[in-house]
Design a protein that fits this description.
By secondary structure, this protein is an alpha/beta fold. It has two domains: about 100 residues, 60s Ribosomal Protein L30, Chain: A, CATH 3.30.1330; about 150 residues, SPOUT methyltransferase, trefoil knot domain (Alpha/beta knot). It has twelve helices and twelve strands.
Length: about 260
């Protein structure tokens, strides 16, 4: 085991991790991303993610030796950071002193399972990492088979998405497409629904959601793109009482996914 302690914020590894945290482009180019926190890192281990390196403080190692040793046994490399240096690479307010650099996951081919039926979610230009993380976590919890993301969604490997998904990012099949509208148009074997705010749309509690089907959820502020709505077979809506005009994207997605699985 490597016991060398890195105590300088100018270290090249420290700069590398900070770039992974802050730059989606750098994550794509390097095919790496960061998972921080004991539970998220252990989820990566249990999900057989490829761990490039484990970084922890000495205090975190002593406190969680059994789990950290498992992570190190799977990792290509491991490093110890001083407390001050770890804080410099942490994306949380109260760092636990452990993070993993993980190789990006190749799950795009898993969308072939659509041919065997299933219930799927399409996310069109979701921008809030917290929303995306929550949606992925909920999708796994209720049993959604896979998620399709438009390429203009926020990065699925953003630290906030990884943390907010509570490990779902390691396990839930997903794919990325330049155009959800085009994807739907090319897959007419799948019943597609556009989730909209409209009294003219069909109430979600009146929809059977028979397999295979896909529901499209839109941007937090603007909803679905017009071309996505036009490509879908049917528009559906969540009936609301009172004066609320719309719901948070992750809340709306959660309600819809629950109805899909009833």
């Amino acid at each position: 085991m490597n016991k060398t302690l890195i105590s300088s914020k100018d270290n090249s590894l420290v700069k590398h991790i900070n770039k992974l945290l802050k730059s989606a482009k750098y994550r794509r180019e390097s095919s790496l991303f960061v998972a921080e926190g004991l539970r998220v890192c252990y989820d990566a281990f249990l999900s057989d993610a490829e761990i490039a390196s484990v970084i922890c403080t000495e205090q975190a190692y002593e406190k969680n030796r059994e789990i950290v040793d498992k992570l190190i046994s799977r990792a290509e490399k491991n490093y110890f950071f001083s407390d001050s240096v770890f804080k410099a690479v942490s994306d949380t307010k109260s760092p636990q002193g452990i993070l993993c650099v993980i190789k990006t996951l190749d799950k795009k081919t898993l969308f072939d399972k659509m041919e065997d039926g299933g219930k799927f979610l399409a996310l069109d230009n979701i921008q809030d990492p917290s929303n995306l993380g929550t949606i992925l976590r909920t999708a796994e919890a209720v049993g959604i088979d896979a998620v399709l993301l438009s390429s203009d969604c926020c990065d699925i490997y953003s630290p906030k998405v990884v943390r907010g998904s509570m490990g779902a990012v390691f396990r839930l099949p997903y794919s990325v497409t330049d155009s959800i509208a085009r994807f739907i148009s090319e897959r007419r074997d799948i019943k597609s629904y556009a989730a909209v705010v409209s009294s003219d749309a069909k109430r979600i509690d009146k929809v059977s959601f028979e397999e295979p089907c896909m529901v499209c959820i839109g941007n937090e502020g603007n909803g679905l793109k017009s071309e996505t709505i036009a490509a879908c077979d049917e528009c559906i809506t969540i009936p609301m009482r009172g004066r609320a005009e719309s719901l948070n994207a992750s809340i709306a997605a959660g309600i819809i996914m629950w109805e899909m699985q009833k």
